[in-house]
TrEMBL record:
Pfam family name, one: DUF7033
InterPro entries: DUF7033 (IPR054297), Glyco_hydro/deAcase_b/a-brl (IPR011330)
Ranges where the DUF7033 domain occurs: 87-174
Protein name: Polysaccharide deacetylase family protein
Superkingdom of origin organism: Bacteria
Length: 439
């Protein structure tokens, strides 16, 4: 249980300006200024995927799910005559369960791409995908520390701003707008559009070779983005990878130009590389030498094999963990966190910058199918949670969805979302910068 406590405490210490030395005991030791009741459950020893029972308890107007407590009748915490504060619920066990990805490692469910599916998750079952429960648990612990030490515990800021936004762009397609958007237009009798896209392609200016357009949108925000390039063009088991050659002169020129402008270049590991270290490293070698971060194509993260692989290749961070089926908090946390190695029972040095929203999620036939008018009303409660806890909002907006031939109203939606964030005084950071401020 010490491993569980150390993992949760590590992340708690990165959220707030805490007293030093900090006395928090996991278990009622009678000595520590803050003592968190530890569960008597043998759940973690039995290595089950899902807790047998849950209870719900209100915290400042929000009903929270707890996984290792039997009754919600007691107060969250009380103070003893000696001034010690006793937390009556095992916030540590519940936080570890969600943050570490325990349910994914031990759960057998996988979709056709080897991903842990949203429908199998506790987030779906109990409908808290847009509530960062781990942040709530740690907020309760913060209040307990504040009471025990008699001082206000303030959150850490992002260059003085209350929360951060990480704008990321997976570069999958640069050369196929004429085909993907043009052929359907031709079938619908829109010969003019087909010819326009075909002529652009023949002139070497495919409508999706539009990285300057993406960069222009970032410039309007005074923001730097993180661009994940996909170095593999060969299909994998019938599934497409890139439609371009990352080593071609025109793509290399764009990578150098984007990097010189202060944006970050990351690796977009192709299909299958989440379980193939040699292939992932070969793809990384095709990009600039200082690439520190990765996001897997199709968000193909294997809960059992991928974390150790990322450590083996010395990646500083990954940014794959979000559910493609739904926006929100896959690990119920709105800050970066360190991945966990269950086989060796230790925290890894690799950070995860969790993905909160992918553009495709909004209207893909298999996902949410929201109209443009429905997007902001749906997203706002999630964004308010991030703002409440001073977290990081990570957005994935593919380059083709800045054009007129991708996601319906793609560019206006991107502008609407980022305008909301600007108005709430966010700090725009690259993924690498986010990690630099979190470590």
């Amino acid at each position: 249980m010490n491993i569980i406590f150390d993992y949760v405490l590590f992340h708690f210490q990165r959220l707030y300006h805490l007293p030093s030395p900090l006395e928090i005991g996991y278990g009622l030791d009678g000595r520590s200024r803050v003592q968190v009741t530890s569960t008597t459950s043998t759940f973690f020893e039995r290595q089950q995927a899902k807790p047998v029972q849950t209870v719900w308890k209100d915290w400042q107007g929000t009903n929270l799910t707890l996984f290792f407590d039997e009754t919600p009748d007691q107060p969250w915490f009380t103070q003893t005559e000696q001034g010690h504060v006793v937390v009556h619920y095992d916030l540590v066990a519940s936080a570890f369960y969600l943050l570490s990805g325990w349910q994914e490692f031990y759960g057998p469910e996988r979709d056709q791409f080897g991903r842990y599916p949203y429908k199998a998750s506790q987030q779906a079952r109990h409908r808290f995908i847009t509530k960062p429960l781990v942040n709530y648990y740690l907020d309760i612990l913060r209040e307990a520390v504040s009471l025990a030490y008699g001082q206000e515990i303030k959150p850490k800021l992002w260059h003085g701003k209350p929360f951060a936004t990480c704008l990321t762009h997976d570069i999958d397609f640069c050369q196929s707008a004429w085909k993907v958007a043009g052929k359907p237009a031709l079938k619908k009798g829109n010969l003019g559009l087909f010819l326009k896209l075909a002529q652009q392609k023949l002139a070497g200016k495919d409508a999706w070779f539009n990285l300057p357009q993406v960069e222009h949108e970032l410039t309007q925000l005074n923001a730097k983005g993180t661009f994940f390039f996909l170095p593999e063009s060969a299909p994998y088991d019938g599934h497409p990878n890139a439609d371009y050659d990352v080593l071609s002169q025109e793509i290399q020129k764009e990578i150098k130009r984007i990097s010189a402008a202060g944006h970050e270049i990351g690796l977009h590991g192709s299909h299958g590389t989440g379980t193939n270290a040699r292939q992932l490293q070969a793809e990384r070698d095709k990009l600039p030498a200082d690439v520190k971060g990765n996001r897997f194509h199709y968000l193909r993260f294997d809960p059992v094999k991928t974390p150790a692989l990322l450590e083996e290749l010395n990646f500083a961070y990954d940014s794959t963990l979000g559910f493609p089926e739904h926006f929100g908090f896959r690990n119920s946390y709105c800050h970066p966190f360190r991945l966990f190695n269950f086989k060796e029972r230790r925290m890894l040095p690799v950070w995860e910058v969790p993905l909160n929203l992918m553009d495709v999620t909004l209207n893909h036939p298999n996902y949410l199918q929201l109209s443009p008018a429905e997007v902001m009303p749906a997203l706002t409660p999630m964004l308010e949670e991030i703002i409440r806890f001073g977290g990081v909002f990570t957005l994935l907006w593919h380059n083709e969805n800045f054009s007129d031939y991708g996601l319906s109203a793609g560019r206006p939606l991107f502008q609407e979302i980022t305008r909301f964030l600007q108005n709430r005084e966010t700090c725009f950071l690259t993924a690498g910068e986010v990690i630099g401020l979190t470590e």
